[in-house]
Amino acid sequence: MRHEISCKAFVELDTGLLADFLASVDDAQEDIDACLNRLRNEPDERGTLNQLFRSVHSVKGNCRMVFLDAVVPVIHELEEILDLCRQQRLNFSAELADFVLLVLERARTMIREAAERGSIDGTPRDQMVQLLQAANQKIQAGQVVDFSAITNQLQGESALVEKPGLGELPSDIQLMKDYALALDNLTSFRRGRSQQILQLCHYLNEATGFYAEPRQLEAAVYMHDFGMSFIAPAIVQKEATLEKDEQRQMQQHVFFGSRFLQRLGGWDEAALMVLQHHERVDGSGYPYRLNGEQIHLGAKMIAIADTFFAVTSERSDRTYKKSLFGAVREINTNVGVQFDPDLVEVFNDVVRAHYLNAQS
Fold first, then answer.
1. What's the pLDDT score for residue 222?
2. What fold characterizes domain 4-156?
3. So what's the architecture of 169-359 in CATH?
4. pLDDT at 359
5. Residue 141: CB partners within 8 Å, gap ≥ 6?
6. Chain-centre distance of CA 1, in angstroms?
7. How many CA atoms are closer than 13 Å to the CA of 135, on its beta-carbon side?
8. What confidence score (pLDDT) does residue 316 get?
9. CA neighbor of 310 nearest in space, from 136, 192, 207
10. pTM higher than 0.85 for the full model?
11. Which residue ranges in the chain fall short of pLDDT 50?
């Protein structure tokens, strides 16, 4: 049974502020990773330990600042354990470093969950807090804590997630399709784009053994640009390079589409694909800088298909369209950076089978 903790005040913040907060969490994690790597080699280095403590403390403070109080207890209890290291009441170790990474990974998962759904599952949160408190109490009592065992315990846990009912899926799909087609028809540069992307995604999905559930993938294709409706037209249609603040606003469109699908019910996989379709396999994408296998394969399919038809179609910022071979070259050039190498190989086969023959 899920115990939901509302994060309503957090998700109602200005989208630019939310983007700044998420970026600050990523920046802090980079500092934390660097500190942990140094401490693995020099566990007694006081300056690095203090820097690690400050970085974790900054994440806690920023969570509190944006009303994400549901996550604060987890980070606070971890901070208390790190403070015992600073007081030299606990020796830093590689096992503790692994534990810190796992706890922060769980905290970031909660942050993503709050951003996507407006709430978090309180049951694993409460269990994590209790576990951290128990470890803290043992250390304070002079007892030895086996952080390796705790880490293994956490990694081995599996939660039963209640799935919402599928509801009226066919009518949902029709609603999404109607909206996508209406969005496509707003400009001649996008006309027919959703159906083109859907067809290519179907070919890719079929070639990978239908990794993504077909209806979920169809919904994700129709809704992947839904959030653009909530971005200022001046930003969406701007031909010049976007300013940093404009980029952050543009990046918020993935949240709008994902949340819509979540609230509709029965479209969790589609919501995940929409949220992740601008992630890049090298970790430089958005909104969470996921990399490699962290990204849903369906989201990777949409990314390839979206790029393929974007560069083979006329656009408002160019009056020409690239050739099919130019588009294939662009996608292959970005293998391992933007696109998944294995999926690009599948894409190349699909182009030969379904698009090259059609043009010959």
1. 95
2. Four Helix Bundle (Hemerythrin (Met), subunit A) (1.20.120)
3. Orthogonal Bundle (1.10)
4. 52
5. none
6. 25
7. 26
8. 43
9. 192
10. no
11. 158-169, 315-321, 360
